[in-house]
Design brief:
By secondary structure, the protein is α/β, with parallel strands linked by helices. It has four domains: about 100 residues, no CATH class; about 120 residues, Beta-Lactamase; about 160 residues, 3-Layer(aba) Sandwich (Rossmann fold), CATH 3.40.50; about 130 residues, no CATH class. Helix content is about 40%, strand content about 20%. It has a seven-stranded mixed beta sheet with strand order 12-11-13-14-10-15-18, with helices on both faces. Strands 6-5-4-9-8-7 form a six-stranded antiparallel beta sheet, with helices on one face. The protein has a three-stranded mixed beta sheet with strand order 1-2-3, with helices on both faces. The longest helix is centred in the C-terminal third of the chain and has 23 residues. About 35% of the residues are buried. The structure holds zinc ion. The site of zinc ion has 8 residues, from loops.
C-alpha cells in the first residue's frame, strides 16, 4: 500500500554510529519492512509478547535471549506460521533491541500515507476480474491476519485473491467511503452496514466503476475476533450480465443443438407455461434470461414482457420489472404479492417471467396468466423435468390444470457441472494407471456409453435399441482433471456447463403422468417412437466422451453412471455378440 522504508532514520543503522566513536554497543541490526507483531499489525499478539519478541514481514524473528522458551514467544511463532507468515531462525537479542524494533514500527506506521489512487485502482481491478469471471457476488473476508477475496460464480465460491489483513481493511474502508450517501459518515465496523456503489457518481474522490457494472450493493457484517465480512452483489448491464446478450441462445450455456431447437420451438408456441426446475444456484435464472432475450429479439421487441422477481435480477432487454419488496413478514408478503398481481394484469403483458413458483399463491397466479393466453416462464424446485407436474400437484393445483399440455407446455431441468481445464487435462487411461481405484468407474462409464450409443444408433436406423449389437465404446476422448491445476485454472477445472433435460409435453405424456405411470412416461419421452428425448445422463455422457467433463464430476452431479442392472445387461449383450 505505501512505500516501505528500507531502514528507518532512528533504526540502529549499522555503520554510522559505530564510526561516530561512541562507546561500543551490541551489534546493530538493520530494520526493514513491517513489524507484524506491532500494535495494529497483521498479527494479533498479547501485549506481553511485545516485550519479548518481534516478527517482521521479511521473516526476521527477534527473540529476547532469556525468554526463548516462554509461551509468549513460542505461541507467536506458531500463530504466524499457521497464518502463512515467514518465520526465520530466531535472532536472540537483548530486550532493548526489541524495544527499538517497536519504536521503529511506530515510525513506519506514521509514515504510512495511504495512497488513495492505488486503493481505488485495486478496487477497480477486483470489479474487473469479477466482471470477466461472470461473478454475481464478491465476498471479502478480513480475519486472522489475512484477507480472502472470493467470487460467487454460478453458485460456486472461487478464491480470487488473498491480501494481508491491513490491505483488506484499507480496501473495505475505501469501498465504504466511496459508496453513495456516506459523505462524512464514520463507519462503525461493529455493526452491520449497507451501502450502494453506483456508476456515474461524481465527486472529487469518486470511484469509477468498470464498463458494464451499473452498481454494487454492499453489505458489511462484523465477524468474531474483530474480523470483517463484506458481500457485494454486482449489478451488470445487459451486455455484461450472464445470458444478457440478445444474440446468444441456450447452446452457449451447454444445451445440445437438438435441445436448443426444442427450446426455440417452445419459445414460439403461444401461451402456456414453461418451467425450469433444478436445485438452487444451478443457473436456472440465466437460462430463462437467455430464452426471454432471444424471444424479445425474435419478435423485434414488440411484446410486452414483465419480470416479477424477488430479489429483482433483470437483464432482459425491453422488459419491465415489477418490484417485489422482500419482507420476512408473511402477511406483508402476501399483501405485496396481491398488489403485484393486480398491477401486473393492468399492464397487459404478453410474456411474464415469475421468479419462482413456490406455493399455491404463486402457482395459482402463474396458471391464471396461462389461462388468459399469456406466455409464462418460471422456475420450481423439482428433481427432474418429469417431476414438475407432481410438484404442482403437491403445491395444490388441480389435476385438470396440471396435466393440460396446452397450459404446461415445456418442462426443463438443469444443473451445472464443472468442466475440465483443457490446458492440464489428463487422459482417463493414463489416470487409471496411477489410480487403479478408477477401474470401477471405467466399467460404469463403458456400460453407460455403450447403451447410449446403441440407443442413438437405433434412433438413426429406426429400429428398437434391443436389436442393436452392443459395441465396445470409444473412450479415447475421455479425460479427467489434473487435480493440481495450472496457471489457466483452479484445481484442474475451468468454468461450468449445463446438463439438461428439455421436454415438450403432449397429451400422451401427460396422461401417463396423471395415471402415475412415471416409468412409462419416461420411456415414452426417451424412445424414438415417442418424443425422442435426451436424458441428463446421456447429455452428460456426450460431454464426457468429448473430454469436456470428467466422468468423476458427472458421477458427482448425477450419481452412478450405470446401475447393477445396466452392468448385467451390458455383460449379457456383449456376450451374445
Ligand atoms: Zn489447468
Amino acid at each position: 500500500m505505501s512505500g516501505k522504508p528500507e531502514t528507518s532514520t532512528d533504526a540502529p543503522a549499522a555503520g554510522k554510529e559505530q564510526q561516530s566513536g561512541h562507546e561500543p554497543r551490541p551489534p546493530r541490526i538493520p530494520f526493514a519492512g513491517k513489524v507484524l507483531t506491532s500494535e495494529g499489525g497483521d498479527l494479533r499478539v498479547p501485549a506481553e509478547s511485545r516485550k519479548l519478541c518481534a516478527l517482521f514481514d521479511t521473516g526476521m524473528w527477534l527473540v529476547s535471549e532469556s525468554y526463548k522458551n516462554s509461551p509468549f514467544v513460542t505461541s507467536v511463532a506458531a500463530q504466524a506460521r499457521r497464518q502463512g507468515f515467514k518465520v526465520d531462525e530466531p535472532m536472540y537479542v537483548t530486550p532493548d533491541v526489541i524495544a527499538q524494533a517497536y519504536s521503529y514500527a511506530s515510525k513506519v506506521d506514521q509514515a504510512t500515507v495511504v495512497d488513495e489512487n492505488q486503493v481505488r485502482r485495486r478496487i477497480k481491478e477486483v470489479f474487473l476480474k469479477a466482471r470477466e469471471a461472470g461473478a454475481n457476488d464478491v465476498h471479502i473476508e478480513v480475519a486472522d491476519g489475512r484477507t480472502k477475496i472470493e467470487f460467487r460464480i454460478d453458485g460456486s465460491m472461487i478464491v480470487a485473491d488473498t491480501l494481508t489483513q491491513k490491505e483488506g481493511e484499507t480496501l473495505m474502508a475505501a469501498i465504504w467511503s466511496h459508496s453513495a450517501a456516506q459523505s462524512g459518515a464514520t463507519p462503525n465496523w461493529l455493526e452491520p452496514m449497507a451501502a450502494m456503489l453506483r456508476a456515474g457518481q461524481t465527486g472529487k474522490d469518486s470511484l469509477e466503476l468498470p464498463e458494464g457494472l451499473l452498481g454494487v450493493r454492499c453489505q458489511w457484517i462484523p465477524i468474531v475476533d474483530g474480523g470483517r465480512y463484506l458481500v457485494m452483489r454486482m449489478h451488470y448491464d445487459n451486455l455484461h450480465i450472464k445470458g444478457g446478450h440478445p444474440d446468444m441462445d441456450v447452446d452457449a450455456l451447454g444445451f445440445t443443438p437438438e435441445q436448443t431447437s426444442l427450446v426455440r420451438h417452445l419459445r414460439r408456441l403461444p401461451g402456456g407455461m414453461r418451467i425450469v426446475a433444478g436445485p438452487v444456484n444451478q443457473g436456472k435464472t440465466t437460462t430463462l434470461r437467455v430464452i426471454l432475450n432471444r424471444r424479445m429479439a425474435e419478435t423485434n421487441y414488440r411484446l410486452n414482457c414483465l419480470l416479477i422477481e424477488d430479489p429483482p435480477e433483470g437483464g432482459i432487454i425491453g422488459a419491465r420489472q415489477i418490484g417485489v419488496a422482500a419482507s420476512h413478514d408473511e402477511e406483508m408478503r402476501e399483501r405485496v404479492f396481491m398488489e403485484v398481481q393486480r398491477s401486473a394484469l393492468r399492464l397487459d403483458p404478453d410474456i411474464i417471467m415469475l421468479g419462482e413458483v413456490r406455493d399455491l399463491q404463486t402457482a395459482g397466479f402463474a396458471y391464471k396468466l396461462a389461462l388468459t393466453g399469456r406466455q409464462v416462464y418460471t422456475t420450481i424446485h423439482a428433481y427432474s423435468a418429469l417431476a414438475i407436474p407432481q410438484r404442482l400437484r403437491d403445491i395444490g393445483i388441480q389435476p385438470y390444470l396440471v396435466y393440460d399440455h396446452n397450459l404446461l407446455r415445456g418442462l426443463v431441468t438443469q444443473r451445472l457441472v464443472r468442466t475440465i481445464c483443457q490446458h492440464c487435462k489428463v487422459p482417463f487411461a493414463e489416470a487409471m494407471r496411477q489410480r487403479p481405484q478408477l477401474a470401477a468407474l471405467m466399467i460404469r462409464l463403458r456400460t453407460a456409453v455403450a447403451l447410449m450409443d446403441a440407443e442413438m444408433m437405433a434412433r438413426r436406423d429406426n429400429v428398437t435399441a434391443d436389436d442393436i449389437k452392443l459395441q465396445e465404446p470409444d473412450l479415447s476422448g475421455v479425460y479427467v482433471t489434473s487435480g493440481k491445476g495450472c496457471e489457466h485454472c483452479i484445481g484442474g477445472h475451468s468454468g461450468r456447463t449445463v446438463l439438461a433435460e428439455v421436454v415438450e409435453t403432449d397429451s400422451r405424456l401427460m396422461a401417463l403422468l396423471r395415471d402415475d405411470k412415471v416409468d412409462q412416461a419416461r420411456a415414452y419421452w426417451l424412445s424414438h417412437n415417442g418424443l425422442g428425448g435426451l436424458s441428463m445422463l446421456w447429455h452428460a455422457m456426450g460431454k464426457v466422451v468429448k473430454g469436456q467433463v470428467s466422468p468423476e464430476d458427472a458421477e458427482f452431479e448425477l450419481g452412478p453412471l450405470a446401475r447393477e442392472r445396466d452392468l448385467r445387461e451390458f455383460e449379457e449383450r456383449m456376450g451374445r455378440s
